[in-house]
Write a structure and sequence with these properties.
Number of helices: 8
Distance between the termini: 34 Å
CATH topology of the largest domain: Alpha/beta knot
CATH class of the largest domain: Alpha Beta
Strand content: 15-25%
Largest sheet: 5 strands, parallel
Number of domains: 2
Strand order of the largest sheet: 2-1-6-5-7
Bound molecules: S-adenosyl-L-homocysteine
CATH architecture of the largest domain: 3-Layer(aba) Sandwich
Helix content: 25-40%
Structural class: alpha/beta
Order of helices and strands: EHHEEEHEHEHEHHEEH
């Protein structure tokens, strides 16, 4: 069982992506738990303030340290966390290797930033790892956090009904996945490769391996380097 605690000022953004398909089934099978926490509940004063002007006068609001500190301290008093991750465009780039690593852990906090970002002291003192989902800037860390949860949860044994299916995905062995086809075998003259209809498992496996290598060489040669 893996447990995610996601900290956000816009928790609504996380609801749909984490409540359908493989992630939902993994939760229902007790393979994963996801707790979404609203940082506003820890906000300051009557208006539950969670952001403030940045020192130095730069444009944009910054998420305050106190609500984040209070929530993380409460969670840490309840259990031990393996990682406290901040989603950040300047973090390490998410890839399948990181997803595999995280899928072996038990308790993970993910902090979603918003506005101009978060008070840097949170990153200096509370965060253990910073992850980016790509070299572009989004409005908040919620979609990136959902991306991490999805990539990690589908790797947990049992999350995908056919367990070998996750292992044959692109990147899992530094190879892209071979093409897949389904019925009908002939759609208006667009045909499925004959070998897949041959019923010969050895020939099919060989064809898939060749396709995987060929596609990787053509589309993502850097994956083949070592
Ligand atoms: N001023 C910041 C960007 C803030 S964007 C900077 O230039 O680095 C607001 C929030 O969205 C961030 O705090 C982060 O949590 C999230 N975010 C934006 N782009 C992201 C990305 N590519 N990967 C992960 N998180 C991202």
């Amino acid at each position: 069982m893996i447990r995610f605690d996601i900290l956000s000022v816009v928790p609504e953004l996380l609801e749909s992506p984490l409540n359908h398909s493989i992630v939902r089934r993994a939760k229902e099978s007790n393979l994963a738990e996801i707790y979404i926490h609203d940082l506003r509940e820890y906000g300051k004063g009557k208006y539950r303030q969670v952001d403030d002007y940045s020192f130095g006068g730069d444009a944009g609001m910054v998420m305050m340290i106190e609500p984040v500190y209070k929530l993380i301290t409460r969670l840490k008093s309840e259990r031990e966390y393996d990682e406290i991750i901040y989603m950040s465009p300047d973090g390490e780039l998410l890839d399948q290797k990181i997803a595999n690593q995280l899928s072996c852990q038990k308790n993970i906090i993910i902090l979603c930033g918003h506005y101009k970002g978060i008070d840097h002291r949170i990153r200096e003192h509370l965060i253990t790892r910073e992850i980016s989902i790509g070299n572009y800037v989004l409005s908040g860390g919620e979609i990136p956090a959902a991306v991490v949860c999805d990539a990690v949860i589908r790797l947990i044994p049992g999350a995908i009904s056919d367990e070998t299916s996750a292992l044959s995905d692109s990147f899992q062995d530094d190879l892209l996945a071979p093409p897949a086809y389904t019925r009908p075998a002939d759609f208006n003259g667009w045909k499925v490769p004959d070998v897949l209809l041959s019923g010969n498992p050895k020939l099919i496996k060989e064809w898939q391996e060749n396709e995987a290598v060929e596609r990787t060489r053509r589309l993502r040669p850097e994956l083949l380097k070592d």
